[in-house]
Amino acid sequence: MKQSEMDYSDVQGLVRFGYGKMKEASYAHLRVKDVTAARAWLRNAPITSAVATTPPPSTALQVAVTANGLQSLGVPPSVLAGFSPEFLTGMAEENRARRLGDIGSNAPSQWEWGYAASVPHLMVMFFGEHGRLQAFIQDTKTDAWNAAFEEQRWLGTADLDGVEPFGFTDGISQPQIDWERQRNVTRPQIDYSNVVALGEFLLGYPNEYNKYTDRPLIDASFANAGDLYVAEDAPGKKDIGRNGTYLVMRTLKQDVRSFWQFVNRQAGGNSEEADKLGAAFVGRTRAGDPLVPMQEAPIPGVGPDPEQIRQNQFTFDKDPLGAGCPFGAHVHRANPRNTDYPGRPTGLAKLITMLGFGPDGFRDDLMSSVRFHRILRRGREYGPELLPENAVAAAPPNDPERGLHFICLNANILRQFEFLQNAWTMNTTTSRYPKTGDCDAASQAFRNLSPCAAVHTSFFPGCAPCAISPEPAMGEIRPTVNGLPAVCSPLQRSSKSKLQGKIDEPLLAPVDDAQIAARRNQPNFVADSLCEERCLGVIEHDALLAIHPACALVDLGNDGLQPESENPVFQRAVRCVKNLALPGKMVDQLGDLGAVGSAGSDDRGSFCLAIRDVAGRTVGEKLIELSL
């Protein structure tokens, strides 16, 4: 097979197929008991590849390994160092947990699994058609399995017939992978497309920046390197990561009763109005229909199935004020369906916009293009079905738990999963939206209930050799919904999405540009996600720059791989922030007070932009990702 051809036999099938038609699934969390036996089992494991077959298989087995697992299997430290910092440190690391909102009752120390000794070495995923799963599991658990692994836990799933526990149709919108590598990502993306570069999901291929995501590369002379592909971006190296991806898993408990009881109270007991309010949280009706009209023009990567076209051939271009689909809706936040340039200009207007001129409205050019932040969702529900009409009743004794085993696949955990979680899902003032005081209520309903669990794993290619190659009232702008219970509370989040102290009331009604301009000059105005390219001159960021009475210092912290003086990305960031004309207060100082670490390279890096008071205390901070 040619180097440039797609080797589906080296890709695990979950990436390509999802196995949605296999209604039964179970996840085994294992720890290595015997290294030699574990390596032997992995070498011969019946892993289902991404090769299409007729008929398709009735069962499937997939394997993911954590950083601790790689270490336990004897992977050399020099190879481990090539994996991403997010993968190596894991979700339970203090700064990363805070960044993801895992604090308070959601703190790692409260997790049922995924913290300290409860972190598995491997996760083996079993899928099967109705009636086939248990026999498949038993056939797989041979003496070799028992000799190799200690079983920590088994996570079961439920078949709710395509509906998640709150009662909404799930799994409707997924990006279409450009398996044939036909997409030209170097041109400005004027129109929204659902087709995404292969390198956004598999390591070893160009991503939406036309770059190769960092991954372990080794010399051709390295032991067991012979069967590995040559790295496309480094011909003298062998690519351990090629055809692998990163799998993020989080067990999220859902309080279905509290959600629908709250919605029902707000609707005055009117079930029809309760359905509308629930749909406003999610951004779709329970049947999966979007809250904005379908557009006539086709969207690349949507269709040809008529139902997929009906449910996904839309953008929010004609709903700029969130009148149809609220800004805080899960669907709106998780995939804003935007492009590289606001308003999708063409001709002379496009040139003017590219030069940093043109319209300067409050909501123009304020958020990163979604094509850099897509994920593949592969989660499964657990617990029995509870219909919304039954959820309004009081819970019986020993009411069973319900929730989601959230699973997503991405090649860059920081820029994809973590960005979605921190910048777009948790943040009350995310991107171009007015400060409505709401967050993604549907996702918060998952998060703020009781201990969850999370782990980053590397998801290896399909035939893993012994050497271990690698988831809501119609009107103009909706009023803020007050009195949300814990199931939807926007308050328990990372400090990276919230400034401490009193901030003026949010915008609750439409205002014209003159009013907005006057508001921007108020001394306590909070500007979030300021103009992406015009102000910072970077490809993407979600920086929080606060003009607040407590703000005396803006600190761009970098404790990365290089000193600030040697890191060109950091120097670019310093120059850009220094050039910002912040209304009401200038940047007093730029420096590193050692508050938050970061990872950087010669052409890209992640940093923490911290807002500090006169005593040096942090009153707000935000992770930003910069690229030259």
How is this structure best described in words?
This protein is α+β, with helices and mostly antiparallel strands. The chain has a domain at 521-627. 21% of the residues lie in helices and 17% in strands. It has helices at 13-16, 35-44, 67-72, 77-80, 85-89, 94-99, 133-140, 143-148, 256-266, 271-282, 306-312, 330-334, 347-354, 388-391, 414-426, 441-447, 513-520, 568-578, and strands at 24-32, 59-65, 122-128, 149-156, 176-178, 195-197, 217-219, 229-231, 234-239, 245-253, 376-377, 380-382, 403-410, 453-459, 526-528, 544-546, 553-557, 604-612, 618-627. The strands form five sheets. Strands 1, 2, 3, 4, 10, 11, 12, 13 and 14 form a nine-stranded antiparallel sheet that branches. A hairpin with a 2-residue loop joins strand 8 and strand 9 (234-239). Helix 9 (256-266) crosses helix 10 (271-282). The longest helix has 13 residues, at 414-426. Mean pLDDT is 75; it is low at 431-437, 444-454, 459-513, 522-565, 576-604 and 611-616.
Summarize, please.
This protein has 18 helices and 19 strands. With 628 residues, it is an alpha+beta fold. The strands form five sheets. Strands 1, 2, 3, 4, 10, 11, 12, 13 and 14 form a nine-stranded antiparallel β-sheet that branches. A three-stranded antiparallel β-sheet has the order 7-9-8, with no helix packed on it. The protein has a three-stranded antiparallel β-sheet with strand order 17-18-19.
